[in-house]
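Handout, section B. The chain below has 215 residues.
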Amino acid sequence: MNKLGKVAQIIEESLLVDPCLEEALDQGYANVSEAARRIRSIYGGGVSATAISSALKRRPKKSGREVLSSVAGSTITVRTGIGKISLEAGPSDMEVLERYGQKLIGFSKGLETVTFLVDEKDLDTIATKFSGRLLEKKAGLATIVVRGPTAILNQQGFLSFFLGILSKKGINVDDVASSYVDVMIILSESDASTAFGFFNAAIETARRVVNQQSA
């Protein structure tokens, strides 16, 4: 690998584990020289901070305008009193859907597990029916449903925008599910109000920015 290729690889790997730095560079408010020194300190010798700084300045920037527009066009709703049941996957999964379909709030399936979101008042009743396959039963959850415009179906960065907010604010996400343009983020009921406030503020700010750019 030549020197330019090595510098590009170092930058790519650094930004992969430090999305905040990548965002700051893309938005133009990062100190490029300081960012270069920081990246070099992680990877040690072999390349100079000057070479990294020059590569950072030439690096194509992501505008994020499309994602911001989708955020601005989103709505959010909150539902509390949610319970979660995780089971070992089995041939009777469809039976759960058929028997309790009207009581299910969400459903997701992995390779070896299946998870159902239910109203908390139905949690114990449903869980006892599948005690032999039960992996986890959890109460005290809430869902924040982010409904975006249809543009998000072919767009990168929409989900990470909202999850990034929660990560930066130290709010843990219990699960994520999606259906068409609805993204359901499951988290502790005690965090729901705070998370909703952050999301609402972000959407309102995105709308102001988009309106300003359109003016």
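Note. The chain has nine helices and six strands. Compare this with the example in section A.
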